[in-house]
Fold this sequence. Notes:
- This protein is of the alpha+beta class.
- It has a domain at 7-112: Aminopeptidase.
- The protein is built from five helices and eight strands; from the N terminus they run ββαααβββαβαββ.
- The chain has an eight-stranded mixed beta sheet with strand order 1-2-3-4-5-6-8-7.
- The two termini are 19 Å apart.
Amino acid sequence: MIRLATANLGVGKQIVPFQRSHMYQIELKGFEREYLNAFPDYIDHIANGADPDHSWTGIVYNKIVCIFGISMLWPGVGEMWMIPSVHISDSPIAVVRASKKIISETVTELDLRRLQITVNVNNLQAFRFAKALGFNVECVMTKYGPEGHDYYMMFRR
């Protein structure tokens, strides 16, 4: 397990272990609000499915900027997920740097040969973020999302 009781990323910026209460404190962005409309149990689904050893919350000046984690699908393969808040643009460089470090450590710890993430093809900010983290498009999954949109399946080693 990656021990991140608190990771400071500069003044007022930190990554802390995910807590269920964070799901009720985050200010969701447009795409995530759309998920909530299409999937009423979205918040509980994420909170219940989050691996407590591999899920984190990014906080900038006491505002949640994102919640993210990695879940094991089976040995050697994991799936990353992320829920950005309306505040994620407040500190994008710090979020990318911290995420890269955590991903790298987690991939090593879990001995992953593949890490994947799904991204709504209409969500340009999420796509750019995934690319910045080293993910590449593998395919488009038609009508995959809870709202019926197409998604990219992206992966990295």
